[in-house]
Design a protein that fits this description.
This protein is an alpha+beta fold and 621 residues long. It folds into three domains: 4-114, Roll (Ubiquitin-like (UB roll)); 121-506, Glutamine synthetase/guanido kinase, catalytic domain (Creatine Kinase, Chain A, domain 2), CATH 3.30.590; 517-618. It is built from 20 helices and 19 strands.
């Protein structure tokens, strides 16, 4: 059975031969991505492709504006959207009970010639980064003094690499997580990198083998910090499974890395469910317990005309400097311009539930380089860290730790490259040396810099959560707390937002479409999901003690506090509206500033309420 078809074989002759030799491939699916990252999936009989291969590649398939999320671009009154196959990437065959579907990444085209969606934006960002970086090197040849390159003309091409690390929770269907057991296990680090057993081991091993078939060069799969030990039942099976896992694989070019990210999620879900286990890629499936991240890595190399590949982030002498000027420029650009990356990283309430102090989740745009050049320490409290190996210059890269499994990898990688390019161009234009740039990124609050903001710090080798919230805000800026807060970052500094429009990577309609899509989903989730969930939880917190019980005055006092709080959250009176009703009114009025404020207030009070109710239950006999 064939699982992957490389781009070199996407011509008519090779593809017709492959499909003829593999009759189990019955369908074709064109995988287009809208502005929010939702993908299309349809079943086209393979004969439609083989009947006239070139025509199929040119025309693809059609859908409409109601089938994809492209607000302000395609709607029911202007709905034509074509899904055109992308020949310049790997194609995969997805099997279901021996029946294969050829999944082809595709470009969405609105009204015949307007290419739209996440894949298009990443494609254009990659092209812009490569072109502009090579141009900046040629215009500022001083930088070659810090690289193993004699002259700019020796560079044949810029090579970009990216990869993601996928964390996820696996569980027995319909079982509810015991938060206290999860929290205790996390504090004792009972699960991290432990041996998997039972159906979890079976599913993990089958997943790794399945990914190898697709040529993903899996590096490892292992248990993460979250989870509890499963229980062996009388029938010899396992119940109450709740474990956090991670799977890592090799690097690819940015587009292929994003495609791989989608492929891996589908394979994980299919294999684990075949073993009777449910999977969630939520960033924070259980409050009070470690969430799931999707650390995203970035590397920049140059292929020389003699065929040699060099890492442009690495310094000439790995024992003398942390990075080259290009490396410093990239991390400085990413940190300074994180306001235009953050809305693509965290576009859901679930994402912000993870980005809170106390669980190793990064909340401040700050980096760590290492204690010294000789000491490659790893600070897990920062957002974007330098990863390097003094013995291997090709390993130098950055790890962005804020994305979660549901982040739109295409737009995260695109925006990150736009941000990095701005920093690289500024550094090279200023002619800065590695030592000068180390001083810049390490500068203290209040010190002026040629590029970085005066009243900010950008580097920390210490635990930033040892600082008070007020101290973190002063040094690293205020962190958004809701989807509406992060979307407003596009308006906060128009100069940063303008970077997205350089080289037409984004256009204003793209950005408006993304903002509208994110706002709609956030508002709908608040009103139609979270509000209902909060009300249900409040309704289910009822009085448990009665006169005949051995209840104490403490129980009575606790219940009065609980009852008052749950009514304030979820019960209206003729004189006063509850918090949830106020939230729903703010959303219906389009008062999103107030809605965001109400969301935070209710979330905080619900956490207090749940903790109080748990303490109340514990004390009752």
């Amino acid at each position: 059975m064939i699982y992957r078809i490389e781009k070199e074989k996407h011509n008519a002759k090779d593809m017709l031969a492959i499909l003829g030799a593999n009759p189990e491939i019955k369908f074709v699916s064109l995988v287009g991505l809208d502005i929010y990252g939702h993908s299309t999936d349809e079943k086209i009989p393979v004969r439609e492709m083989t009947r006239d291969y070139d025509a199929f590649m040119a025309r693809g398939a059609q859908t409409d504006g109601s089938a994809v999320l492209l607000p302000k671009i395609a709607d029911i009154s202007n709905a034509r959207v074509d899904i055109i196959p992308d020949p310049d990437c790997n194609w995969y065959v997805d099997y279901n009970e021996g029946i294969g579907t050829l999944r082809i990444p595709a470009v969405l085209v609105h009204n015949i010639d307007n290419e739209v969606g996440s894949r298009v934006i990443l494609r254009d960002a990659i092209k812009s980064f490569k072109t502009e970086l090579l141009k900046a090197i040629k215009e500022n040849p001083y930088v070659l003094e810090y690289l193993p390159v004699k002259k700019a003309d020796d560079i044949k091409e810029i090579v970009l690499t990216s990869a993601t690390e996928m964390e996820f929770y696996v569980m027995t269907p319909h079982d509810k997580a015991d938060k206290e057991r999860l929290h205790t296990s996390q504090q004792m680090k009972e699960q991290y990198w432990k041996r998997t057993i039972g159906p979890v081991r079976t599913a993990l091993e089958k997943t790794l083998l399945e990914l190898e078939k697709y040529g993903l060069d899996v590096e490892m799969g292992h248990k993460e910090v979250g989870g509890v030990n499963a229980e062996l039942n009388a029938g010899g099976g396992f119940d109450h499974i709740m474990e956090q896992l991670e799977i890592d694989w090799e690097y690819s070019d940015p587009m292929q890395a994003a495609d791989n990210d989608y492929l891996v999620r589908n394979v994980i879900r299919d294999v684990f469910r075949a073993e009777g286990l449910d999977v969630t890629f939520m960033a924070k499936p259980v409050t009070g317990v470690a969430g799931s991240g999707k650390h995203t890595h970035f590397g920049v190399c140059a292929r020389l005309k003699n065929g040699k590949l060099i890492n442009l982030f690495s310094p000439l002498d790995m024992k003398e400097d942390f990075m080259s000027p290009i490396g410093y420029g990239a991390i400085m650009g990413l940190l300074k311009n994180y306001d235009i990356v953050s809305p693509f990283v965290s576009a859901s309430t679930d994402a912000f539930n993870r980005l809170k102090p106390g669980y190793e989740a990064p909340i401040c745009p700050v980096t760590s380089l290492g204690l010294t050049v000789e000491s490659p320490s790893r600070n897990r409290t920062i957002m974007a860290g330098l990863i390097r190996d003094a013995k291997n210059p090709m390993a130098t890269r950055f790890e962005l730790r804020s994305p979660n499994p549901k982040s739109n990898t295409y737009l995260v990688i695109a925006a990150a490259h736009i941000a990095m390019l701005d920093g690289i161009k500024a550094v090279l234009a200023a002619g800065k040396t590695p030592k000068q740039l180390e001083a810049s990124v390490s500068k203290k609050y209040g010190k002026a810099d040629f590029y970085l903001e005066k009243n900010r710090e950008y580097r920390s080798e210490k635990n930033i959560f040892d600082l008070t919230p007020e101290e973190r805000t002063k040094l690293y800026g205020e962190s958004p707390a809701t989807v509406w807060d992060v979307l407003k970052l596009f308006d906060k500094d128009s100069k940063k937002t303008q970077l997205l429009f350089n080289d037409n990577v984004f256009d204003k309609l793209d950005l408006e479409s993304y903002r509208e899509a994110s706002k709609r989903i956030w508002a709908t989730e608040l009103s139609d999901r979270l509000a209902l969930d909060w009300r249900e939880k409040c309704h289910n917190m009822y009085q448990l003690h009665y006169k005949e019980m051995d209840a104490t005055d403490l129980d009575e006092a606790r219940w009065k506090k609980i009852d008052s709080l749950r009514k304030a959250i979820a019960q209206d009176s003729t004189k006063k509206k509850c918090l949830i009703t106020k939230l729903e009114k703010a959303l219906s009025d389009g008062n999103y500033d107030l809605a965001a404020k109400m969301q935070l207030e209710i979330s905080e009070k619900m956490l207090i309420l749940e903790n109080e109710y748990n303490e109340y239950k514990k004390n009752l006999f």
